[in-house]
Structure formats: structure tokens, C-alpha cells
Amino acid sequence: MTIRKIALLSGIALSTIGAPALAQDAGAPADTSTADASGNDIIVTAQRRAEKVTEVPISITVASAAQLERQQVNTVNDLARIAPSLEIQSAPGQNTGGGGSIRGIGTLTFSPGAVASVGVVVDQVSQGNANISDLFDISRVEVLKGPQGTLFGLTTSAGVINITTNAPEFGEFSGRVRTELSNAGTAGAKYGNQVVQGVINVPLASNAAMRVSGVANLRQGVNRNATTGDYNNNDRYGVRGRLLWEPTDRLTVNLIGDYSQTRYENGGDFFTFVKTSGPGSFLGGAGFDAVGITDRLASCGVTVREGNRDYCSNNDQVGKATSYGGSLQVDYAADPFTLTSITAWRKATETGYGAASDVFRGSPLELQVANDPVDRDLGLFTQEFRVSSAAGSPIEYTAGAFYSSQKQTRIPEIVRVTLVPVPGVVIPIVTSTTPALTIRDESLAFFGQATGHVSDNFRLIGGVRYTTDRLSLNTATSETETFLDVAKWSWRAGAQYDLTPTMMSYATVSRGFKGGQIAVPAVGDPSVVQPEIPTSYEAGLKATLFGGWVADLSVFYMKIRNFQAQQCTVDGNGIISCVQTNINGVKTRGAELNFFGKVTPNLSLNTGFIYAKATYPGGFVGTDGTDIGGTQLANSPRYKFTLSGEYKQDFGDTLAGFLAVDTVWKSRVRYEANSVADTTFRAHWMVGGRVGLRTQDQRYSVALFVRNLFNVHEPSLMQSDFPYTSTTTAGASEGNIGAIYGPQSFRNVGISLDAKF
Fold first, then answer.
1. How far is it, in rounded angstroms, from Cα 636 to Cα 634?
2. 323 contacts 132 by C-beta, under 8 angstroms
3. Residue 33 pLDDT > 50, yes or no?
4. Residues linked to residue 518 through DSSP beta bridges, in sequence order
5. Per-residue pLDDT at 117
6. How big, in percent rounded to 5, are the helix, strand and coil portions of the chain?
7. Pairwise pLDDT comparison (129 vs 25), residue with the higher score
8. Contact (CB, 8 A) for 595 and 549
9. For 307, how many CA atoms within 13 A lie in the half-sphere containing its CB?
């Protein structure tokens, strides 16, 4: 990122700050989703209706707009910092449905037909695999833990990330611009990132308004090409428009559309070498590299070590992705119930050179593995009808039907393995082609859930969903269709009891469902991966403290039949080969405690801790041939602690200072299903924060921020035997280790500016 571009973005923000006030502030609506010390309630839609969070019998972590901004949560990947139970796997190609895991359970796979264990829902619309990446103009985020199949469907066997954007406001013209600006090498920043978000609210009539918001998220790094000295540019742009119209006092219409595009250079955030060996064998022992990877990489300026983000490549490759969609929601209050229809369409495409286009990104290496350009297209249509009773009825219910149709197409994808013994001499070794694919996933479900008020303090809960799902795959080289037809019941039952006016307890048992997969190997026929069926038991306690601070305590146990796993190894040709399979007997159990809201009018504090023992079944054999049964699942910390908060201090009638902190602690994490210690990462803290000034009317603010203050190099993914086959013994690898680092892996320091009119 050039200083000129930094200055330009800063100038835009500063010119906005200097703009005259045109109307009352509506650019950032009142923070109605977070309780405060005066007793305002936290309202959520975890059960498809607006309810107080303290009355919902589900473990929920809620982040308001104010919390998301103070923690600089700008992408879906950043959401891992708001809830101890939530992890987001940001590795390229493995982010099915957002790549989330809750309480250790998630979906990480390259399988094109896979669906997520953790569903992402935006404004009541399931995103499927056509998921959003940037978060802007958000009202709140709810992390719902445990199977949510009764009300949210087949992609929610581990939980839901429920996102609500800000609605247009009637009768007010307003706007807002907020920025976060950093530059690689300035004030200790290890990479550059410029985020500019804007919103404008336009009244159209007394009962209609439009809200348009946009974002530019430009990042330089974290990876850097040592051959040229340039950082990888990762640039994203997005826009959303939302029309709210209330033609009568009973009818509400919400029309929403969004569009985003991404451009990334040389694979974006992809593998770099963090450990290498000396001379060694490759091609299954048929070859010998007398120089060794360490010295070959050093010859082009790459020093192999933990936190190495450098690679050296003579290629100049670009990948692009787009995502867009729209939804129409119509609500009609037909007392004593409300009718809702939500029609939505989403589209996602990926073209050009993706992350795997140059797997090792090491031009001096003898072995080269590269993919040809990709062309992938995904479309998702959903339709939901539901009827909901009025709040406070003796029996509160929600019932309806849901239909989804997802189609994905891919052109033939080619992997080429070559040997380059000396510059200019290229010897083809292996060419592997995955044929053109068409994957269809069609689902129809009927659902209902009710809460019966047995007494003023005691309620019973019951819900059921019947889902039919057909997944099919066709290839250009076969006349045979591979398909999977399933029909499954999901259900939920439980009870809740108000111990005091400010304390509620509950206990539930639920059965979830996640659709199957059709795995497409590089060699051989496609294979079916059966649906994932979790059974979960949860008990919890919710209480309101200090007039507005919410405590959420839960204990849980979940056992999964046909857990969908992926195990990746490096074959004798240096190709990373991943196998999707079912594992029976995977469990997660533990306890979680969350506090969120305002402790006092000047102190907001959100904190939580989880113990989640998520384990492989007894006798399970890992990719290195060792018994890892009973040990922690890959990509799942057993312990995690989060803390974020902001303290405000008034300086007279016009200014206020604020100090915010953002801290996460994790226990050791393994990244592979084996015993190799080199592909684990130690227990660590990630510390960040902001300090700044804002006007008392909150129209203007300026702050300095830091993320990952101590520059802790937490990976997104690690891979052993990378790239050459090497000697791996129980607990150690004598060979090569690759790691993917993302923005969370390096320190970032900058300035944020905010202006409203």
C-alpha cells in the first residue's frame, strides 16, 4: 500500500469529519441489542422471533454494534474473537459455509458438495456456501451453540452465526463514515490494511426508507514475495442496499440486495515454510535433492522459521471472487399470529488463479506443484414460509416450511507436477485432472417449535423438523450420476424455569442433522459421505446482574454419529491429498460461562471462558499411523478465554476519552489428525486494544489501535511432509512443515476515524 493511497483515504475520512451536520444522527442506530445499567434489554432472534436473551433457552453469545466496532470485527473470520466457543477456519478452499466450529465441532473440507456444521444466517437468510466475508453496518451478531436444526435447518448441526444488519430509519436523512488505516512498517505494523465503511439513510416517505452501505477492505500482506519484495494485495469491495416499507400498520416489506468482489494476488494467504530439512528424497523416494529445501529457499531470500510469511515466486498470478444476492421478506400481522415469507437468491463465483495455483511458491525448488486457473460457479435459492404466534401467548409457536436449491459447477481442474533440476529444464512428472463437475443439493423441510407456559415461572419446549435432501453429482467423463437421498427428523425438547425475576434455568435435549457429501478424489470414483447426526444435551442458567450485565452459564454433552472429517496427507508426488470420511463416536463435552453487556453506564464488558473436550473415538488411527483415540480434535482448543471491554471517561460537556481492550487466550491447538508435535501451536495470548477521544454526542471520534500487540504467529493451518515425503515418527517430523498465516498472525497498528452526520 503506497503512502499516497493512505493519504487519499485519510483525506476522504477527514473531509467527512469536517462536513456540517445535516440531520440528527441516524448513521449508527441506537444500540438496542445490548443491555445497559439502566435496564434496557438485550433483544435477539435466536428462535425466529424478537425475545429477551435472558428468556431464550439456548446458550447465546451476543455482540452488539458497539462491541463489534471496538473489537474491529470487520470480517467473518474476526468473529472468533467475540465468543470463546467459536473458531473460524480461514484457510483458503476450506471455508465451507464460513468455516466455523462451535464447541470444537465444525466442517473443514475441500469437498465441493459439502455443507457447514455452523450455519451463517444474515437477516434471516441462510447463506449456504455462497457466504459473505465482510461485516459492515451490522446491528448485532448472535452465536447460537448446539444443534439448531429445528428452526434453522440442515447446515446447523453445531450451531448458528446469526447476523442482523441495521434497518433503515423513517423520517431521517443521515450518514456515517468510519475508517481503520494502517501501513506496513509504520508504528510496528507488520502488514497494511485500510478499511473504509460508509452508510447513508434516506427517507422516501413517512412509512418508507432506504439504507445504502458499503465497504472497501484493502490489505497488503501478510504474505510477501521475497523475489520482488512486494506484499500480496488482498482487496475486497462490498455494497448493500436495504429498503424498508410499511404500507399499512400490519404489513412490513424488507427488500435487501448486496454485492461484493475480491481480488487476491499469488494465492493470497497460503502456505509458507516454517520448518525444512536438508537434502532429502521426493517422488516416493525415487529422487534425491542434494541441496535441500532450506538452502534453496535461502538463495532467494527466504529464512525458514516460525512466523515466516515470505515465499519466492517468479509467477504473477491473480484470483478473483464475487458474491451477490437479494432477499424479499414480507411480514403480515394477522392477529393473533404473524405470517412471514422470505425469498432469497445468492450467487458466488471464483475465477483465475486460486490459493493452490502455485502450492509451494518456491521457484528455486526442484519439485513444482501447480493448478491451472479455476472457474467455479455456485447459485443458491431459498424460500421460507412461517407463521408465528403473538408474544406472551399461553402457547408461543413458530411453524413453517423451507425449500432450498443449490447448484455448483466447476470446469476441469488440472494439477501439474514437474521437476526442474536446473533453471529452464522442466520435466513433467504427473498431470492429474478432476473432471468438470455439476453438484446439486435440493432440500425441503417442514418444521415447528412451541413453548407452553405451564405457569408464570415454568415452561415446556418442544420442536420438530422433517427434512428431505437430495445431493447429486455429475461429471463430464461419466454418464453415471452419484447421488444421496436422505430424509431425517430433527427435534428438540426441554423445560425452563424462572428461579427469580432476573434468573432463568433450562435443560434441553436435541437431535440435529447435517447433509451428506460426495467426495471427489483426484483418482477414482466419487464416494458418498453420510449425513452428520448429533445428539446434544445442555443445561444452563441465565441471569441479569447490575441491572443490565447478562450472565450465561451452560454445561453440554454432544455425541455425533457419522462426524464428517477430512484427513490430508502429502503423497509421493508432493500433492496434498485430502480424504473425506465419516467417523463414529466423536464427542464434545464441557462448560461455558459468558458475561456481556454494560456493567455501569461508563463500562462495557464482554468476557467468556470455555472448556470443550472434543475428542476422537477410542482407537482412532491418525494420518501418521499412531493411535490418537481420546485426544483433542484438530483445530479445536480445549480451553479458550475472551475478554473485551471499553471504559469511558468524560472530559467536560463536549469530549469523552475511551480505552478499549480485546484479549483472547487459547490452549494448545493441533492442526492435523496425527501425533506430529510440529503441526501444533502452543498456548498463547492475543492482545489488542484502542485508545481515543470522541465527542459526547458520538458524532466524531479518533483512536489509535493495535491488534496482536505481541506479534504472536498463530497459524490458520499447518501441514507436515510439505512438500517432499520425509521421515515422520510418532510425535515429530524430520521433514518439512508448511503453515498458512492470516491477518490474525501478525501485529497491526493504525488509526481509526469516525464521523456521522
1. 5
2. yes
3. no
4. 528
5. 87
6. 5, 55, 35
7. 129
8. yes
9. 9
Residue 8 has pLDDT above 50, yes or no: no
**Statement: residue 615 has pLDDT above 90:** yes
d(CA 123, CA 484): 30
- Residue identified by cell 422471533 is 49
Region of poorest pLDDT, from 150-154, 684-688, 730-734 = 730-734
Pick the range with the lowest mean pLDDT from 12-21, 295-304, 679-688: 12-21
The identity of residue 202, as a single letter, is: V
What SS3 state is found at 80?
A: helix
Please tell me the least confidently modeled range out of 91-105, 420-434, 580-594, 685-699: 91-105
- Give pLDDT, residue 40: 62
Residue 649: how many CB atoms within 10 A of its CB? Answer: 10
Grade residue 328 by pLDDT with cuts at 50, 70 and 90.
Answer: very high
Q: What letters, b where the CB count within 10 A reaches 16 and e where it falls short, cover 498-531?
A: beeeeebbbbbebbbbbbbbbbbeeeeebebbbb
Res 401 pLDDT > 60: yes
HSE-up of residue 188 (Cα within 13 Å, Cβ side):
13
Q: How far apart are CA 88 and CA 374, in angstroms?
A: 25
The residue-averaged pLDDT of 350-369 equals: 89
- Say if CB 608 and CB 592 are below 8 A apart: yes
Amino acid present at 567: Q
DSSP 467-509: EEEEEEEEETT-SPPEEEEEEEEEEEEEEEEEEETTEEEEEEE
| pLDDT score recorded for residue 24 | 33
Within 8 A by CB and 6+ apart from 423, the residues are none
DSSP 118: E
> Does an H or E element contain 293, and which?
helix 293-298
35 neighbors 544 (Cβ within 8 angstroms):
yes
Span 467-482, average pLDDT: 84
The closest alpha carbon to 310, from 356, 361, 358, 353, belongs to: 361
Beta bridge partners of 557: 537, 589
Cell reading at 65: 454494534
Q: What pLDDT was estimated at residue 592?
A: 97
The SS3 of residue 585 is: coil
Cis peptide before 222 (omega within 30 of 0): yes
Burial of 38 (0-12, 13-18, 19+ CB in 10 A): exposed
Query: Residue 143 and residue 85: Cα distance in Å, rounded?
Result: 9
Locate cell 490494511: which residue? 193
Which residues pair with residue 709 across a beta bridge? none
Which of 48, 30, 36, 67 lies closest to 167 in space, CA to CA?
30
Instruction: Categorize the per-residue pLDDT at 572 as very low, low, confident or very high, splitting at 50, 70 and 90.
Output: low
| Residue whose entry in the numeric block shows the C-alpha cell 461485516 | 135
The whole-number pLDDT of residue 155 equals: 77
Three-class secondary structure of residue 266 per DSSP: coil
For 90-132, list the strands marked E by DSSP: 100-102, 105-106, 118-122, 125-126
> 490 with 150: CB under 8 angstroms?
yes
Helices assigned H by DSSP within 176-242: none
